[in-house]
Write a structure and sequence with these properties.
Cytochrome p450, five-stranded mixed β-sheet, three-stranded antiparallel β-sheet
């Protein structure tokens, strides 16, 4: 590399866009990065070099590329350090989000059918009952309330517990441990303890379901014969965390614009626009190159990390006009809030059903629902793996 190349490379180095208190989301720097020629790069706290992808087409290309790996065991995989990074198969066997083909497809084959749009249509009455119960519990508790703790978290938590076949009574146990795993502020010891407790619990559930199978996801994985008991427990943990935390954040965030514009509820495009607008999994789909590959005009060498920034792609002005305006009338389909390609979220149809029912039933039951504090004072999760609200004070 010549001196000129070194200078040019150094000029493209930027700070990694971790969320910071008081800063807008998505970071304004995303737009600035898109306007620059080529790509910018950063260094992760764990010491890995990572290229930042902020253009819609670059992000989609990266998520489709067979030369970019999701496997955190590969050298150069970008993580914020051990704490908060994706677990490896040695830590959690069955955590298939960090597997590449063909291993990844072994899990997808087992779980695709239970999460199809058709299956969600069949499950809709069960999901609706859960939402109705949560709304009635919220109403009974009375005003004021925290819509995060009293509604947005219980809805997906109860739904995923029911789908996995674990007792509702254990919801508080799951929620408390998951809260540790999804914050970057937790220590290694806290994360290890929470993971151990969850895997031990799910291991017992696998043992029970092997003896007495039911109409649930754990039984489905066991009966497939494709996964070992430990892999079933790890996959169940991934489904539990993804099914609760991402949906809870989406429900809470989406309620904010709907409080002032309830006429949007039921609009055909509302859920996809909410998913695009908030892009809660912005920093989730990290990758590492396992072969040299060119993206956005930049040669990315094997061993270099890649961060396809979901919110940046969903705010790309060339794909979504006036992206900072919340507009349910736009065509937000094609957003990458659920990812893209082989790792696209299995639960996307479930999330859509939960969000649509949550808003319709909540505002039907509590039509005078309103914020209990100025919108600019809402507390956001600045230390979380996912974007979301720490609380949402409301009255009615």
């Amino acid at each position: 590399m010549t001196a000129t190349d070194v200078q040019g490379d150094a000029a493209r180095r930027v700070d990694f866009p971790f969320r910071r208190p008081g800063e807008p989301f998505p970071p304004p720097s995303y737009s600035a990065y898109r306007e620059r020629e080529g790509l910018v790069w950063s260094m992760m706290p764990g010491g890995q070099r990572v290229w930042l992808l902020t253009r819609f087409e670059d992000v989609r290309e990266a998520l489709l590329s067979p030369h970019l790996s999701s496997d955190s065991r590969n050298d150069g995989f970008p993580t914020p350090g051990r704490t908060g990074g994706p677990p490896s198969q040695t830590q959690i066997p069955g955590w298939f989000a960090t597997l590449d083909p063909p291993e990844h497809e072994r899990y997808r084959k087992v779980l695709m059918q239970p999460f199809t749009a058709r299956r969600m249509k069949e499950l809709r009455p069960r999901i609706q009952r859960v939402v109705e119960e949560c709304v009635e519990s919220l109403a009974a508790k009375g005003s004021p309330a925290d819509l995060v703790a009293d509604f947005a978290v219980p809805v997906p938590s109860l739904v995923i517990c029911e789908l996995l076949g674990v007792p509702r009574a254990d919801r508080a146990f799951f929620e408390s441990r998951i809260a540790v795993l999804v914050t970057l502020a937790a220590t290694d010891e806290q994360r290890d303890r929470a993971t151990t407790e969850l895997l031990r619990y799910l291991g017992r559930m696998v043992t029970i379901k092997r003896r007495r199978p039911g109409d649930d996801l754990i039984s489905t994985m066991i009966e497939s014969g494709e996964l070992t008991p430990m892999e079933v427990g790890g996959a169940a943990l991934l489904l539990l965390i993804a099914g609760q935390e991402t949906t809870a954040n989406n429900i809470a965030l989406g309620a904010v614009p709907l409080v002032s514009r309830p006429e949007w509820i039921g609009d055909e495009g509302i859920v996809d626009e909410l998913l695009r607008f908030y892009s809660v999994a912005d920093l989730v789909p990290l990758r590492v190159a396992v072969a040299d590959v060119e993206i956005g005009g930049q040669l990315i060498r094997a061993g270099e990390g890649v961060a396809p920034l979901v919110a940046a792609a969903n705010y790309d002005e060339t794909r979504f006009g006036c992206p900072h305006a919340f507009d349910p009338g736009r065509s937000a389909q094609g957003h990458v809030a659920f990812g893209h390609g082989r790792h696209k979220c299995l639960g996307q149809h479930l999330v859509r059903v939960e969000m649509e029912l949550a808003y319709r039933i909540l505002f039907d039951r509590l039509p005078t629902l309103r914020l209990a504090c100025p919108v600019e004072e809402l507390p956001y999760k600045d230390d979380g793996v996912l974007y979301g609200l720490a609380a949402l004070p409301v009255r009615w």
